[in-house]
Amino acid sequence: MARVNPSLANEQAQYNPVHRVTGLFDSHDAVTAALCDLEEAGFGREDIDILAGAEGEHVLDPSGQASTTGHWYRKLEDWVSDTSKFQELASATLNAGGFVVAARPGEEALKGRAMEILAQHGARDVKYWATWYVEQGHEDEPRQNLKRDDQ
């Protein structure tokens, strides 16, 4: 099984998605389907993390308030990158009952495949977190511009 709200024993002060593809999900069913496809594509269960609920938000620590180190890490992150927007979106998703899925590809080919799988199952804000940059994957269509089928 994938790691759910993983322990931070081997992480930094808070969850760090470096070298992972992440996506935000609203539906448990979509997460389940995406996990099956990721495993079929060659991801090991230990390479997939799921953040959910209040405990998931604590692991993510979007504000950096859980520790002094985490606070300064988030401050630095705000100064040198635009990843704070992801933290806000992920926090809002978790608060609304959604999920954050992060898959660690072992090779370049799996990175693209993970981005495709997450996007196919409805993930929002799909991206790959390299060491010094973030590679945007699937760009969301604004929800207010979606068209109804009956019109």
How helical, in percent, are the residues?
A: 25-40%
Mean pLDDT: 79
**Which percent range describes the beta-strand content?**
15-25%
Query: What kind of assembly state do the chains in view correspond to?
Result: single chain
Report how far the terminal alpha carbons are from each other: 42 Å
Shape: globular
Radius of gyration: 15 Å
Main beta-sheet annotation: 6 strands, mixed
Structural class computed from helices and strand pairing: alpha+beta
Adjacency order of strands in the biggest sheet: 1-3-4-2-5-6
Which ranges are low-confidence, i.e. pLDDT below 50, for 5 or more consecutive residues?
141-151
Secondary structure: number of strands: 6
Series of secondary-structure elements, N-terminal to C-terminal:
EEHEHHHEHEE
Can you count the helices? 5
Number of domains: 1
